[in-house]
Structures are given as C-alpha cells and as structure tokens.
Amino acid sequence: MRHMTYLSLAAAGVLALAGCEKEIDVAEMERKFQGVNVIDESNLNEVMLTAADPNEAVSYFQRASAQNPERIDLLRGLASSLIRAKRNSEAAIAWARVVDHKDKTNQDAVNLADALIRANDWEKAEKVLNAIPPTHETFKRYRLEAMIADSNKDWKKADSFYEIALGLTTKPASVFNNWGYSKLTRGDYADAERLFSDAIRQDSSLFTAKNNLVLARGAQGKYTLPPLPMTQIERAELLHSLGLAAIKRGDVEIGKGLLRDAIETHPQHFEAAKTALDALENA
Question: How many CB atoms lie within 10 A of CB 270?
C-alpha cells in the first residue's frame, strides 16, 4: 500500500512538472508509468494466485480478464483460482477458454483435463489428454493418465503410468497414495499396504495414506496399528477405521473392541465411533 502511495505521489509530481515544462513528452511519461504498473500488476497477480482468499482471487481475475480478454495470463489466473476455490465445473469452462486461446500450451490442455476430472467428466478428460502430443511428458500429465486408466479398470496401463509419474517428481507421496488406493480397489491388499507405507515414509503428515494403510491391513485381518507418527486424535480415528474394517470382514467382536479403544483414546467426544458402537450393541 505504501509503495502504491509513493507511485501516486510520484505520478502527481510528474504531471505537475509536465504542466510547467511543455517540452516533456507526455506519451513517453505514460509509457514509463505503464511499465511500472505492469510490474506491480504481475506481483499482484502472483499474490492473488497464492496468498489471497480463493474466491477473492476469482473475483479479481474475473474483473481483470473481462477488461483484457485477450490476455491469456489473466485467463489462466481465473481458471487456477476457480480450482483453488473448488469451483470445478466453472474451472473446467475457464480452462477450456484458455485452451481456445491462440497462445495456449500443452500444459494448458493438461490443466483442462485435471479440471474435467475434478468435475467428474472423465470421458472428456480422456479425450483432452489423448489429443496432447506424446512428447509432452510431465508429472501431472502421467498422474492424470494413471487416474483415467484406473477409472477404466485398465490396471496394466495404470501401473505403467504411476511408475512413470514417480520418476518425474521429487514429491512422490501423493502418487504412492493414489497407486495404493488403486491396488486397494482391486483387492490387492498386500501391495496396497506397501505403497501406503511408502507414501507415509515420503510424507508423514499425509493422514489419508495412514487411514488407507489401516484399511489395507484390516482387509488382511491385521488388527493392530503399525508404528506410525500420529497424534492422539489421529490414533483414535485410525482405530475407528480399523474397527470398521474388522466389522466389514465379519470380526464383529474385534471391531467392537477397536471402537471402544477409539472412544477411550480420543481426547474429546468421538461421536462417529460412539454411534457405530451403540448400533452394534443394540443390534
């Protein structure tokens, strides 16, 4: 804000000077200040894309792109902000506008496919990815390819794409987790357990992988929590998931015991576990 105030004062000073000295080139002066404004705008765009409230960012880029519809950077900013705001159907439309722009890139098409998957339009996402040249090899592209192969139950292709994606990122935790979930849905519980363990080893804060690991173990009749970094609340929630897995497998009494452990472990009232246990004991 102080920076913008200084710019306004400087502009006012230059204008006053221009009124006194006719030889100053006003067009040149405006051109220079436009350059300053572009720099400031670029910084503001970056802030809106990262630090701002997602819906505020959407409003900002909606206004900016309406005023400058030819600027692809503003169209991308709007589409990215809609993704951050979890407005996925709108984001898919916004990314389609980017892909229709004359300056589009292959990465824009990948981002469109990502938005379509988030909006649950898997068929259209697959068509978008198939139209991208095979020479465009990025982590995001192959992660999406793997997810689409999963949705088609093409397990061989999914495994291949997950493996490629792993080689293209320095942060593979989410890939291990997604691949593990794919194995879990196939009923390959031992492989799923291994992949979830790999995900946690890469990112010990990834609670989804911890919960998935417990489900994979429960499906194999392993009803103990593995040694994992976890908070007390996480421990209670994992015991709850393990209890439900035991009940689903037919080991009802073991499941009841795990639910009781979850209720006792949780530092506060654990409504979900209490409700499940009450339903079992009243059945």
Answer: 21
For tokens 């900013």, what's the residue? Answer: 77
The ranges assigned to domains in the chain are 49-119
Closest CA relative to residue 213, chosen from 238, 188, 248: 238
- List all residues 6 or more positions away from 105 whose beta carbon is below 8 Å from its beta carbon: none
Quick check: helix, strand or coil at residue 2? helix
Cα–Cα dist 226/38, whole Å = 54
Residue 196 · residue 216 · CB < 8 Å: yes
Q: End-to-end CA distance of the chain, in Å?
A: 64
Return d(Cα 196, Cα 11) in angstroms, integer.
Answer: 58
Contact 213, 226 (CB under 8 A): yes
Q: What is the pTM of this model?
A: 0.79
CATH number of 49-119: 1.25.40.10
Q: Dig out the tokens for 82 from the structure.
A: 């809609």
Q: CB within 8 A of 78, min separation 6: which ones?
A: 58, 61, 62, 64, 65, 94
Average pLDDT of the chain?
Answer: 88
CA separation for the pair 87, 264 (Å, rounded): 39
* Amino acid identity at 20: C
- 250 — alpha (psi -120 to 50), left (phi > 0) or beta? left
Question: Which residues lie below 8 Å from residue 129, measured CB to CB, with a gap of 6+?
Answer: 109, 110, 113, 141, 144, 145, 148
Tens digit of pLDDT for each residue in 192-201? 999 999 999 9
Q: How far apart are CA 137 and CA 143, in angstroms?
A: 11
In 3D space, the residue among 165, 137, 161, 166 whose CA is nearest the CA of residue 151 turns out to be 161
Worst-scoring range by mean pLDDT, 52-61, 137-146, 241-250? 52-61
